[in-house]
Amino acid sequence: ALLSPGEKPLAGRRAVVTAGPTHEPIDPVRYIANRSSGRQGFAIAEALAGLGADVTLVAGPVSLADPPGVSTVHVERAEEMLAAVRAALPVDIAVMVAAVADWRVESDTPQKIKKREGEAVPSLTLAENPDILKTIATGTPRPAFVAGFAAETEHVIEHARAKLARKGADLIVANDVSAEGGAMGGVRNTVHLVDANGTQSWPEMSKAEIAARLAEVIAKRLDAPTT
Ligand code: CTP
Ligand code: CA
């Protein structure tokens, strides 16, 4: 059954949400980034707050206004995002929506790298970034409910199920980003909820609607006795 308007089932609960890309500096004027508008994560933070949760949103660089009723922390790099998420603990709910860069440049230079005629082009050595979702889902204090997202271009459900196990999450929200007019940057999305009970596919809807429905799913899960 749908919640009636004004119900606050998440009152007294704390939540942390990550959103947007991360930027990993190469030098002071260049970076490596992922494609992400931040829209879905911002909408989820706002929806959780709408149900009464005390929400910290940890946002990578995006061109969106801070959502109302949410405490927003702005970060740039994955390591800063992890530190900001840790600083928000303990929480009941963690929803990791950010498109975190999997790698950072091992040694970003303090000076701008210059083009030099006749010289070899620079090559970058990469280092692996921390997996924020996995760190939070397998760390202490562990939030009661941890959800992640998975943007896939093929074998969407299979890959999402593998991520559920590998990262120790309670739920993976999977979407196919290869689809025509896909989710990346858009306002609509088609998602599949993958958890221990199976897979539930939702029809295409706006990111705001997905956020509202997901917040309700999370509220119900926190109420339900653990099985
Ligand atoms: N994630 C994270 N920290 C990272 C990488 C990913 O918190 N360093 C989170 C994302 O926010 C998302 C989930 O993990 O909720 C899945 O991200 P994804 O990039 O799909 O998973 P990866 O494990 O990085 O696998 P791959 O990119 O190879 O598909
Ligand atoms: Ca990744």
UniProtKB/TrEMBL annotation:
Region spans: Phosphopantothenate--cysteine ligase: 15-227
Instruction: Report keywords, A-Z.
Output: ATP-binding, Decarboxylase, Flavoprotein, FMN, Ligase, Lyase, Magnesium, Metal-binding, Multifunctional enzyme, Nucleotide-binding
The pathway that the record names for this protein is: Cofactor biosynthesis; coenzyme A biosynthesis; CoA from (R)-pantothenate: step 3/5; Cofactor biosynthesis; coenzyme A biosynthesis; CoA from (R)-pantothenate: step 2/5
Q: Is Ligase given among the entry's keywords?
A: yes
Q: Which domain of life is it from?
A: Bacteria
From the UniProt record, list the reaction(s) this protein catalyses.
Answer: N-[(R)-4-phosphopantothenoyl]-L-cysteine + H(+) = (R)-4'-phosphopantetheine + CO2; (R)-4'-phosphopantothenate + L-cysteine + CTP = N-[(R)-4-phosphopantothenoyl]-L-cysteine + CMP + diphosphate + H(+)
Co-factor note (free text): Binds 1 FMN per subunit.
The task this protein performs is described as: Catalyzes two sequential steps in the biosynthesis of coenzyme A. In the first step cysteine is conjugated to 4'-phosphopantothenate to form 4-phosphopantothenoylcysteine. In the second step the latter compound is decarboxylated to form 4'-phosphopantotheine.
Name the UniProt record assigns to this protein: Coenzyme A biosynthesis bifunctional protein CoaBC
Recorded source organism is Pararhizobium mangrovi
Parent sequence residues shown: 181 to 407 of 407
